[in-house]
Amino acid sequence: MFEGAIDYLQVLDEQGNVDQANFPKDLTDQKIVEMYKYMLFARALDAKMLSLQRQGRAATYAPLIGEEATQIGSAFAFRQQDVFVPNFRQHGVFLARGFPLDNFFIYWKGYEDGGKVPENFNGTAVCVPVASQMPHATGIAFALKHMNKDAAVISYVGDGGTSEGDFYEAINFAGVWKTPLVSIIENNQWAISVPRKDQSAAQTLAQKAFAAGIKGVQVDGNDLFAVYKAVSDAIASSKSGPTLIECVTYRMSMHTTSDDPTKYRTEEEVAEWKKRDPIARVKAYLVRKNLWNDEMEKQTGDEQLKKIDEAVENAEQFKPDPRSMYENVYSFMPDTLKAELDAATAANFWQ
Ligand SMILES: Cc1ncc(C[n+]2csc(CCOP(=O)(O)OP(=O)(O)O)c2C)c(N)n1
Ligand SMILES: [Mg+2]
User: Fold this and answer.
1) Which residues of 54-77 are buried (b: 16+ CB within 10 A; e: fewer)?
2) Residue 130 CB–ligand 1 contact under 6 Å
């Protein structure tokens, strides 16, 4: 008879108290302050993108607010050699992994050039088709294992994404071939207007691991320390096989800038989750330990805003080659597209 149970991990509670038994040993005060700054940075970046979009200076954007602990906690657990496979909401992970800020703004203005992944970035590009990144992730993990590399793949998928065939196929493959895959489910309770309860009758999303014969754990995704610990542990054991980590968090804002969440969810629900704000929780911890104060918060905010404003300015100088609209969809240019491009060139359309 099969018996399964999913552990739930929380280390830092809403008041900033810590469960010492589960506190990650390698988390120094200095590292926690650095992570906290990145949480603030991610939120500031998000607010700027939203404002630019509302002014018509950026294209459709998927905000991350509320999901900073899941993103920064996991990003800090990565080792340099680990490969990052995102969907479309992990701006905080891109930031913490050192993705150039200018490119971030160029990409979200709608230009593919900004989305190109730098050579040494060790990751794949933003991926919008839901869960289609998952077979890539497990395939990369398979290749790393085949080449005897000491590296893991850390992939992200939403709660909605876990209903896709691609998700099941990827974790099934990972289980059979024991690929070094750390698959993070960023369960933010909503898939556009579909609530978590209508997404799956399974009590947890982490238990989907059972069917694939891999490890599964559910984590408080608004708890920076718990996410860091779960992802670090999964990376440490990735040589012997994959782990599925469900981070339980909340999308505090709209799905994307084309969405109006007031049409399908209540203010009470949002207020309830606001009390579990991942940033407030780390701040309470740091302030209590005398590691942080309002002056530091102000200074950090000013520095980050300066970097953001500079990047926006640079991004707004960027002039795309209009012919690039013919590129990037196919690995080669089909005859029909080539004929269009040739006709436009002959008509001096690019002058
Ligand atoms: C294959 C596919 N189907 C539908 C869409 C439209 N779509 C974009 S995001 C999304 C919901 C995704 O929800 P979830 O996986 O929970 O991620 P979240 O947006 O909440 O981060 C949908 C249906 C898409 N991009 N790709
Ligand atoms: Mg979701």
Assistant:
1) eeeebeebbbbbbbbbbbbbbbbb
2) yes
Identify whether 116 is part of a domain. yes
Mutational pocket test of ligand 1: of 130, 189, 248, 251, the residue with most ligand atoms within 8 Å of the beta carbon: 130
- Name the token pair of 148: 């005897």
In a domain, 181, yes or no: yes
Report the domain count for the chain: 1
Helix H or strand E segment including 233: helix 224-236
Q: Give the ligand with the smallest distance to the CA of 192.
A: 1
159 lines ligand 1 (CB under 6 A): yes
Examine residue 330 and state whether it is found in any structural domain, yes or no. no
CATH number at residue 160: 3.40.50.970
Residue 171 has a pLDDT of 98
DSSP assignment, residue 12? B
CA of 73 to the centre of ligand 1 (A): 23
Radius of gyration of the chain (CA): 21
Cα(351)–Cα(344) distance, integer angstroms: 10
Owner of token pair 């709209």: 254
Per-residue confidence (pLDDT) for residue 63, from 0 to 100: 98
Give the Å distances, CA to CA, from 227 to 39, 138, 219. Answer: 13, 21, 6
Question: Catalytic: 255?
Answer: yes
Whether the CB-CB separation of 104 and 94 falls below 8 Å is answered with: yes
Residue 168 neighbours by CB distance under 10 Å: 16
Q: Would the CB of 255 count as within 6 Å of ligand 1?
A: yes
Q: Which atom of ligand 1 is nearest to the CA of 159?
A: 16
Mutate to test the pocket of ligand 1, among 169, 192, 247 (most ligand atoms within 8 A of CB): 192
Predicted local confidence at residue 323, as pLDDT: 86
Owning domain of residue 144:
8-320
Active site residue 330: no
Low-confidence ranges of the chain (pLDDT < 70): none
Is position 338 within any domain?
A: no
User: What pLDDT, on the 0 to 100 scale, is given for residue 3?
Assistant: 87
